[in-house]
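From the shared-data thread, chain only:
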Amino acid sequence: MSATVSERTHRWSWSPLTMRLMLAQTAVLAIGLIIVVITAVLVGPRMFYHELVESGHADEALGLVHLEDAFRSVSLTALAIGGLPALYLAGMLTFYLYRTIGRSLASFSAAAGEVAAGNYDVRVTSTGLGPEFDSLASSFNDMAAKLDAVDTTRRQMLADLAHEMRTPLASLKGHLEGIEDGVVQWDERTTSILYAQITRLERLARDIRQLTAAEEGMTHLQLTPQDPSRLAAQAVAAVQQDAAGQDITVTSISTGMEVTPVLVDRERMGQVLGNLLENALRHTPPGGAVTVHTDYAPEAVTVTVTDTGEGISPEHLPHVFERFYRAHTGREAHRGGSGLGLAISKSLVEAQGGSLEATSEGPGRGTSFRIRLPHHTPTD
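Structure, as tokens:
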């Protein structure tokens, strides 16, 4: 498939629009020429005659009457010699102009048809007709590129979703078939396994719904002044028991200027901090530590969740907020996460006017997730 549509529209053909434009322009030129002829041959001599009479040269005017026929003949000949070539040149120029515009319109029409058919790789080239057409071509190409990215993300999300659902569904099917065949006992252990897989599917459906709502701006936010350090302390307290069971130390510290509340949704920000802490505990080995650092600065408040765990390699770092992305696929598939927590967290933070970024010095050196909350009111 060609990257542009210029080759497909190289053989230009007459279109109804071009024919109408050509006929209209030709009619304008012909009418203009007729007006010039009428003015020069009929109106001009009479005006000159009356001007001589009014200026007191009646005798000279009477002598010019017999010259009107000769004057008209000469004027018509001069207009024919000069007007017809001018009309021809104007027609050729008009033809070239509308031929170029017609080709450009055909190019845009063909490209739009390709996009409508699902080919988002199509691009239109600059027409050379000025900045307006160049801007139109650039806007069309940007639109096609964004549609291509959206379609790619949609396909990838569906593929990842199918992959994520396959494991719990296979486990459910296998245990149910085993119970039917009598090779698996319906006991407390089997029940807990089935409930665990059902819970995994429910969490996956819930996370997808939350991510879609956050990305499409459908999440209802109740923005109220909140102290980020207090929210961080509450999030730490909520995971203390799980952290103690994994032999991981979780602490919360606060630094910077005088405490300044920021406008956030308390529940949603608590959800973000909970996701980040769960992610940190998931990737921190026993004996490690997780720190939540709240820093108050004049421009913004930052909340940074730092762990001493596995870390992230440079090639994986730019993708950690993508849906279902896992840097360690083999190990993370059975850790209980849906692969959507970080994507949800980023969307929720941005919906509240903030930003979320990840940094890591590499494998085995821990990871930091930094939330930045400006002091101004979010506009969305």
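The chain is about 60% helix and 10% strand.
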